[in-house]
Structure formats: structure tokens, C-alpha cells
Amino acid sequence: MLTIAGRKFRSRLFGGTGKFSSPEVMKEALEASGCEMVTVALRRIDLNNPADDIMSVLDRDRYLFLPNTSGARDAAEAIRLARLARASGGGEWLKLEVTPDPRTLLPDPIETLKATEELVKEGFKVLPYMNADPILALRLQDAGAVAVMPLGSPIGTNQGVLTRFQVEIIISQAQVPVIVDAGLGAPSHVAEAMEMGADAVLVNTAIAVAGDPVRMARAFAMAVEAGRIAYEAGLGAVSKDAAASSPEDGLGFLR
Amino acid sequence: MKVFCNGQEQELTPGARVTDCLNTLGLDPLSVVVECDGKILTREEYASHELQDGSVLELIRFVGGG
Lengths: 255, 66
Fold this sequence. Notes:
The structure holds 2 protein chains of 2 kinds. Chain A is built from 8 helices and 10 strands. Chain A has helices spanning 23-33, 75-90, 109-121, 134-142, 164-173, 187-195, 205-208, 213-233, and strands spanning 2-4, 7-9, 13-15, 37-44, 64-67, 93-96, 125-130, 149-150, 179-181, 200-203. The longest helix of chain A has 21 residues, at 213-233. By secondary structure, chain A is α/β, with parallel strands linked by helices. The N and C termini of chain A lie far apart (55 Å). Chain A has a 3-stranded parallel beta sheet with strand order 3-10-9. Chain A has a 3-stranded parallel beta sheet with strand order 6-7-8. In chain A, helix 1 (23-33) runs parallel beside helix 8 and helix 6 (187-195) packs parallel to helix 8 (213-233). Chain B has one domain: Beta-grasp domain (Ubiquitin-like (UB roll)), CATH 3.10.20.30. Chain B is 12% helix and 35% strand. Chain B has 1 helix and 5 strands, in the order E-E-H-E-E-E. In chain B, strands 2-1-5-3-4 form a 5-stranded mixed beta sheet, with no helix packed on it. Chain B is globular, with a radius of gyration of 11 Å. The N and C termini of chain B lie far apart (39 Å). At the A-B interface, strand 4 and helix 2 of A face strand 5 of B.
């Protein structure tokens, strides 16, 4: 069972709550995914159209809410969002995101580390979204992050695990759980991450924008489970040369 | 008096508290976090925190996100 900061999770799939066509579809898809932790964002209320309170749709006994700091462009903005999340009743858990460039949405490593140091001091359980940099993962871990969240590929791109080589090193070194986040666009992508030994994955876009988000959530849940079982079972070695699966002896009668 | 809520002017009676402002806007205090003149308020402070003419409020809530 996965444990993060002393909390146990049966499911190794974490869900996002953005981009769903309706709150009802979101609720049903999250239920189908089996996830126990979901991300949420903080935004100014549209006073001309204030009627969308996500907290009223989701059961807080069922899900641990992981507020994110999406939209923050530097450490100061992320810290402000984190404090607002806590004041909103979001608890101590925080997905730290610092993405200064709206084109790539790649995380700023220096600002992310600075914000992690400050927020850990303030008592937050910080899960930083980070580029797949093994050295940075160690620095964030040393700063007190309770997990690290390296990206597979840029947010919302559905490109899969383009960072495989670096994520493998991060997994091999980490003392805290490694949650592969962002860009995981198909069940095969999450299966790959889990087969590599990732502790969990976070998926939002690929489920939310699927033709049938509820069935897709189920497919992702199965892939996460399959990948984890495969990792625990131990995959066979990869080789360049062929190795016959059938016995090589006993062919003498042919020639 | 006038306060500014999420950038919009809002007319309130002098002496209004944060709770009065949220009621005027039709917002459930339990679903809103309030930053008033740069300071984050706790829910317990909504009923007692008196707004001043020209106060700037940011009214924030959770939305879907990844």
C-alpha cells in the first residue's frame, strides 16, 4: 500500500478535477477511477456567475483534497495561493506548481525549491510538481517535500513519458514517493510509468476530455494496477539479440 | 461606503462586516476564502471584521484543476 506523509492510499491513481464537461461527469469519473486524492485549484470567484462550488459536489470523506498552486509564476505567488488554500479549509496538503511560462507550463526549479523550503517551514505537506531532474528531486526531498512529482511531458499534452531516462534515475534515488504527473495521455502511458516503479501517477486531462470519461477513468485505473503488479512481479530483462522461447534441442529430426 | 470585491465596486452600509458583504453578494461563507487589504481572514473573523471605505477584497474559492 502506498504511504505518503503517514497517510495510506489503496489506489495509486490520483485524479484531477479540471476540464470535465460537468460536475456530474467529474464525480462519476472520479468514482470509476477509484482514486482517493484529487487536485483542486484556487481562483477568484466570478461574481457575475458564482454558481460553481466544486466542494459541494465531491465527498470529502472519500477524497483527500490536494489544492494546487496552478497559475503561480514565482515562489511568492505560490506561497500566497498555498496560504489561501489552507484558509479555505484545504488542509496542509499542497501540490506546489510554479510555472512562469504559459506556453510550456514547465516548472521553475529555483522558485519551486524556494517555495518548498518556506512552505515546509509553515507546516504544509508539499508535493512539488517538477521537471524530471534527478538532482532537483533530491534537493526537494532534502527540503522536506513529502513526495516529488516529476513530469512525463508538458501539462495537458497527452504525450506520455518522454522523460523516461530521468524518471528512472529519480525513482532509483528517491526516499519519498515518486508520483509521475502531467502529460500521461493514455492507459499505456501510466502502465509504463508504474512498470518503471513509480509509486503513483496523477491524471487529469486524459480522463476529463475523453469521449467517455467514466470508462476512460476505469481504463486508467486498470492500467495503473497492471503496471504496479508487473513492477512487483519483476519484468524480464531487455536484450538486443533474439532468444528463442521454444527449446532449441530436439530439432535433429528436421535435418 | 464603497469596497472593491474582485475588482468590482460594491456599495455597503458603513460598519458592514465581511459576512454582510458576502450575504449581499449571495455567497456562502463556508465556500469562500477572503483576503481583505492583503490579509487572509479566517472564517471566524468574517462576522467581526469591519470593512472600511475603500477596502479591497479578494474572494477566492476552489475550482476544478489538475
